[in-house]
Amino acid sequence: MKTKFCVPACGLLLLFLLASSLAFGQATHPLDPLSATEIDAAAKVLRDSKTFPATGMFSTIQLNEPPKDEVLRFAPGASFRREAFSIILDRERNKTLEAVVDLRANKLISWKEIPGVQPLVLSGEYDVVDELVRADPRWQAAMRKRGITNLDDVAVDGWAVGKVDPKFTGRLLRGLSYFKGSSANYYGRPVEGVVAIVNMNTRKVVDVTDTGVVPISATSQDFDEQSVGELREKPKPLVITQPQGASYRLTGQELAPCG
């Protein structure tokens, strides 16, 4: 089965940040982002549902936007629908689920499986990739073959899996290695030729590819002042003003032109 990621690469934390301005208030417009209270309420409805998997994990809870015609007809003070859209990972069964919750009625109104896709990478999974790859004897041997004896000098990053042998299935991530040493920007010193494939559901490294030793850059790729040396002269100040006031108004989350 081919695996692809079906949602933007932004986490649930970002959604909380977007909702911060509404954290303790109520939405006044159909397109206002969900508040923290609404996110909690949607999560509770979903967890309480009989269809929610035992190993279910939320990758997304966000506003389920109403139809455009409802938004255009909206008048301040009028009632409007309020729904939450969620993407859920069933880790045990490797399934991606989508659900919609009616926040006015506190009930589940839609639930379906989306086959052949994966939710976005969860923040904690990056740490898991690092731990699993480091513990793999094949990866350790590949590092030693390149003269790297202190494995703490290597950073392991989790990346999208890309194209892999079809025999590898499940929630896959690719573990790429970088020599960091004492530098801050290790991305300039990749350990070429070594790629680990990790199944995030089973927590196992299913494959390690080593295509041969390629010399690692001998110099740091850091961009701090100490590393790059003397900096350019800073540009002269640029000041932008609107002496007659702004040409727009912001009402809650709604931005509109003045006049």
Q: Can you give a write-up of this model?
A:
- The chain has 259 residues and is α+β, with helices and mostly antiparallel strands.
- The protein folds into 2 domains: 12-113, Nuclear Transport Factor 2, Chain: A; 123-219, Roll (Nuclear Transport Factor 2, Chain: A).
- The chain has 6 helices and 10 strands.
- The protein has helices at 12-18, 36-48, 68-73, 123-134, 137-145, 225-228; strands at 56-63, 83-90, 95-102, 107-113, 154-159, 172-179, 190-199, 204-210, 248-251, 254-257.
- The strands form 3 sheets. A 4-stranded antiparallel β-sheet has the order 1-2-3-4.
- A hairpin with a 2-residue loop joins strand 9 (248-251) and strand 10 (254-257).
- It is flat, with a radius of gyration of 24 Å.
- 21% of the residues are buried.
- The model is unreliable at 1-24 (pLDDT under 50).
Average of the residue pLDDT scores? 88
Shape: flat
Number of domains: 2
Instruction: Report the CATH architecture of the largest domain.
Output: Roll
Total strand count, please?
10
User: Which class do the helix and strand fractions yield?
Assistant: alpha+beta
Percent of residues in helices = 10-25%
Strand content: 25-35%
- Gap between N and C termini: 56 Å
Helical stretch tally: 6
Give start-end ranges of low-pLDDT stretches. 1-24
The top-level CATH class of the largest domain is Alpha Beta
Fold-level CATH name of the largest domain: Nuclear Transport Factor 2, Chain: A
Order of helices and strands: HHEHEEEHHEEEEHEE
Strand order of the largest sheet: 1-2-3-4
Query: If you compute it from the alpha carbons, what radius of gyration comes out, rounded to the nearest whole angstrom?
Result: 24 Å
Chain oligomer state: single chain
Main sheet record: 4 strands, antiparallel
